Amino acid sequence: MSPLSRRALVAAALAVPLVGCGGRPAGQGAGTSPAPRPSGPAAHSSGGAAPVRLEIPAIGVDTPVMRLGLARDGSVEVPPVGAHDRAGWYRYSPPPGRTGPSVILGHVTVGAYGDGVFRRLGRLRRGDRIVARLENGTAAVFAVTRVRTVAKEDFPTEEVYGNVNRPEVRLITCGGPREDDGYRDNVIVFAAPPAAPDVAGER
Fold it and tell me: Does the pLDDT at position 132 exceed 50?
């Protein structure tokens, strides 16, 4: 990822606790200021084939993937709340399979519709397989390296969006106790190619 793209990506994430999860949209009422909108090459897309489907066999996920940008308040968009919940790829992050952290968001619950597509995300374990199918017919395969649950107010922006020298994936949803305006925490799954040193032998 170029330095310009990385700066735009991190800037766009600064306002975020992620994700709305069927409550208020991320960032609203959270005491955060809107993030600057990306400019330059990163303002339109990060290039490469976008993901169209996500499969996580260990937790029964097989979902279409939509594209997400920025909401009007400058926070990262989340997928719409509806009966047919699906995951969303943050289009200012690299597509899965390209160098850098590809960010995919999903709900843990979808209001009156019940469970969200990422309802079991916190159950993933090291070595579990993640497959992102791309619009050009290819697939990018990853294995979980770690799972973190963090308070939204302590969201690790640099750790999630910071530059890396290989293709990686971040899956993000809500977690922890339910509060009046949504969930207190975020669940973040980190994944890398299965042959990477920190996941080799875990398949």
Answer: yes
Q: Is residue 201 part of a domain?
A: no
In order of 9, 81, 172, 181, 184, the CA distances from 21 in angstroms are 22, 8, 10, 10, 11
User: For residues 10 and 68, is the Cβ–Cβ distance under 8 A?
Assistant: no
Number of domains composing the chain: 1
Domain annotation covers residue 146 = yes
The 10s digit of each residue's pLDDT in 57-76 is 999 999 999 999 988 877 78
The structure's pTM equals: 0.79
Residue 34 domain boundaries: 3-192
Within 26-126, strands assigned E span: 51-56, 61-68, 87-90, 100-105
Q: Which residue has the tokens 């992620």?
A: 18
Of 187, 202, 57, residue with least CA distance to 122: 187
For residues 168 and 141, what is the distance between their CA atoms, to the nearest angstrom? 10
Residue 104 lies inside a defined structural domain of this protein: yes
The CATH number of residue 104's host domain is 2.40.260.10
